Every structure is written in structure tokens, then in C-alpha cells.
Amino acid sequence: MASVYSAVECPHCGRSASEDYYYKISVGYIVCRRCGYNAVRSCMPEEAIKYGHEIQENLGYGVCCQVSADGRRKMTLLNCYPDNLEEFKLEIENGDPELKESYLVTFLDGVFEIILGNPPENFHLTFEEYKEKMHEKYGGFEEFDGLVPIEN
Description:
Radius of gyration: 17 Å
Number of helices: 3
Order of helices and strands: EEEEHEEEHEEH
Largest sheet: 5 strands, antiparallel
Number of domains: 2
Organism: Planococcus chinensis
Strand order of the largest sheet: 1-2-3-4-5
Helix content: 10-25%
Shape: globular
Protein name: TFIIB-type zinc ribbon-containing protein
């Protein structure tokens, strides 16, 4: 099935999220690597369910990004506020002791808190700031006005 993959504004935190949109059946998978929001949405839910897409929404409470020494990346979206932050911290410190790329961030009541590590450069940009930066970096998208390139 055909889809369009682009950056969109996260409906939960207002930062840059990724959407994989299956335009033939109007189903969008949205994942925010900032606050952890993730959802499957559709304006035609009956059609989506018919093709095996379960309509759901999980408000984000943060993310844990672990990057191992060999470059493998594991992103955990927090669908509830974590009561095991120490476990996440230990996993990160064991895999990336210098905290070059790994990070643990919580999101509660509209506030981000960096618990450990260093989120990427674009992490703190609002969606509009991110969109402008991507258009400057990759050129204008006049004929594809709604599309925004994706970077971590």
C-alpha cells in the first residue's frame, strides 16, 4: 500500500513528529520522538479497520533513546509516566557511558525534563521552527507545500 512519510506537528507537544500516511485509505501513523506521543488516526475508521489498522492514541510522557557503541539505536516511547527511571538510566549508562547520543526525557503537563544525556539539536524546536530550518536546509517545497523533510 502506498504512503507518504513526512514531518507533522505533534498534537500533544507542538514539536516535530513523523507521520506515515496511507493516502488510499486515509490512515496516518504518527510518532513523536520528543514527547512520546503515538497514534493511528483515520477520517475513515471503518475502512482502516477493514485493512487491519487499529485506531488508537497514546499521549506521550517522554522518550528514552539508547544508542549502543556500534551505532544501533533503540527508541522507547513512554505511554505512561515511568516509575522506573533508574532502570532506564542504568541501561543508557551501560550502553553509552559518555552519553554522546543517548538521552532520557520525560514530558508531563507540557514540560520537558531532561533526566539524562543530550537530546539532538532539533529536539527543542517548535514545529514551525523545525519546518523553516528544513526548508532552508533542503530547499523550498513550493509544489509540495504540506511536506516537511524528517531529521532526528
